[in-house]
Design brief:
single chain, mainly alpha, Non-ribosomal Peptide Synthetase Peptidyl Carrier Protein, Chain A, two-stranded antiparallel sheet, 3 helices
Amino acid sequence: MLKEFRQFLLRGNVIDLAVAVVIGAAFGAVVASLVADIITPIIAAIIGKPDFSNLTFTINGSVFRYGSFLNAVISFVSIAAAVFFFVVVPVNRLNEMRRSGKPVDETTRQCPECLSDVPKAAHRCAFCTSELQPAV
């Protein structure tokens, strides 16, 4: 049983998942710091109040602390915007640049009889043995 457990732990996908969780937590701390230390002060400079947690209203003796909710919404939107503009957009641009190359020449063509893929230089289909016209 210990041998199976060790094999389970040393499997690639378990280790990859563990690394992803650790990197994700570290990245979350970086993004949270970006929002708390840079984006929130910018919002505070524009609006004039950096912390809304003291905002409340009362109805029939019940106190509604909508300021904490407002802080959470602003934090969520700020984090989502930071992740989108500083991670998603640059990664998408990098992927586009990697993809934008010459299209690869096809090395196969379809047999008109059985629709299987055969090499372009083939004169006869290996699957249905029908004769093929020369490739253009």
